[in-house]
Amino acid sequence: MQDAVKAKKVIRKDAEKQTTGKKLLTVLFSLISILWIMPIIIVLYNSLKTNASINLDVFALPNKDTFMGLRNYVNGMTFGNYPFYYSAGYSVYITIVSTALILLCTSMAAWYISRVNDTFSRVVYYLCIFSMVVPFQMVMFTLANTARNLHLDTPWTIPVVYLGFGAGLAVFMFVGFVKSIPIEIEEAASIDGCGPLRTFFSVVFPMMKPTLISVGVLEIMWVWNDYLLPYLVLDQTMYKTIPIHIQYLQGSYGSVDLGATMALIMLSLLPIIIFYLSCQKHIIKGVAAGAVKG
Question: For 267, phi and psi rounded to 5 degrees?
Fold first, then answer.
């Protein structure tokens, strides 16, 4: 009887320790989350302040003297001779087409690499892995010249360049997932008369949904926020994406309208934040699925 009472006390103490540990972790991660969110909050309330008040104190909240309302957003969208909706349209087009191209081509390549598994496929796989560790700065000038020579320096063709840079991570994640799919499913589809393309699009591709969403979110966030690649490749007199448009929000002698800049930064952040929050539950699933070793 005494042993049972002692055992209950030990169990109760362990439970209390675990509860205390969970509370401490909750507080710790809450503080870390606040630190991560603070830059977005600072950009948001500075987008509602006058330019002078931002220069004086960027951390001060807007008051009745410094509050600008939505005028910064209007000023940012109407600045200069290049309409903001052109930049927004180019960014949306490049992001959607680049992501779709990456998902389609890399998922098919990963399926081939996983199922054929010959010398050629292994070389292609290791080249994709190697591309993940090559810094963009090493190849950016050569890439810009090559893109011009191949006429890939327009918004309609730059997704091909993004495909080359986004293939490494996508192939790595897709290969890990495909290796977890039982090959018997594909053999059954082949027995039923499915060819390779029909087997992929009717059987394998739908099963890739967790990894497709995960890779899609990561690629969309990268392409949408990318500044350097469009700046190097596109003709700036004709085409500007949103990050490039924001960079051009300056007047003579280097003066910058910080209020309008903050407003456009906030406009560029909102779509990607909403998209990420709506898809975040799929990211862990996709990463975990792609981490399976064959």
Answer: -65, -35
Other CB atoms closer than 10 Å to residue 254's CB: what's the count? 6
Q: Where do the domains of the chain lie?
A: 2-46, 82-290
DSSP 82: S
Torsion over CA: 39, 44, 50, 53 (sign): negative
Q: Give the fold, CATH level 3, of 82-290.
A: MetI-like fold (1.10.3720)
The listed range with the strongest mean pLDDT (37-46, 57-66, 269-278) is 37-46
Q: Would you say the C-alpha torsion 178, 179, 181, 187 has a positive or negative sign?
A: positive
Q: Residue 7 in 3-state DSSP?
A: helix
- Are 102 and 163 a contacting pair, CB within 8 Å? yes
Q: Which two tokens stand for residue 196?
A: 């390779």
The three-state secondary structure class of 61 is coil
What is the CA 211 to chain-centroid distance, rounded?
14
- CB within 8 Å of 204: residues ≥ 6 apart: 111, 178, 181, 186
Question: Amino acid identity, residue 31?
Answer: L
pTM for the whole thing? 0.82
Q: Look at residues 187, 210, 207 and name the one whose alpha carbon lies nearest to residue 286.
A: 210
138-194: pLDDT as tens digits: 888 888 888 888 888 889 999 999 998 888 889 988 998 888 888 888 888 888 888
Amino acid at 103: L
> What is the spatial distance between Cα 138 and Cα 52, in angstroms, rounded to a whole number?
40
Residues near 76 by Cβ (< 8 Å), separated by ≥ 6? 84, 249, 257, 259, 260, 261, 263, 264, 267
